[in-house]
Amino acid sequence: MSFLLRDASQVDIPAVTEIYRDSVLNGVASYEIVAPSEAEMMQRFAAIVGQQYPYIAATDADGKLLGYAYASAFRTRPAYRWMVEDSIYLAPEARGRGIGKALMTELIDRCTALGFRQMVAVIGGASPASIALHLKAGFVEVGLMKGTGYKHDRWLDTMLMQRALGEGMSTDPDPSIYPGTLFAG
Prior knowledge:
One of its GO terms (molecular function) is acyltransferase activity, transferring groups other than amino-acyl groups. The chain is of the alpha+beta class. It contains four helices and seven strands, in the order βααβββαβαββ.
């Protein structure tokens, strides 16, 4: 399956909403129980890109959305501004075809170029496929939280994974340039 990566835009939100809806209703990556509306997904998109975080779309040759990935704040307190949390969602027919890996690689590259120093993954349901994807992308396991969610009539664990970006913590960041200006006092 060939695909193209590009910046996501507002026109992608209906398809983003459907992909996420499938994940909410049938999967365990998201701990939401009720799928958000298209209007809510538009608000989430605007908040993420409004803070200059990357939001990437993967499409087929005809422009159909196959998946998407974005980075967002792990926490909004100022000391966390150098760390991002990744999120990747794929349409069911796009899974297992290298699209997740391509989205992850592009997301890491973009976050590194923006000056972020750490990326964290909060993997709902401790999904083996998601853990494997993150391990291949250079993440390490930093913690397993047991029984953090209850969905689909079962208790779910959450895996925390992390990887350094760019210079990581080997040098001090410049607080006067992005992302140092995020959430500043």
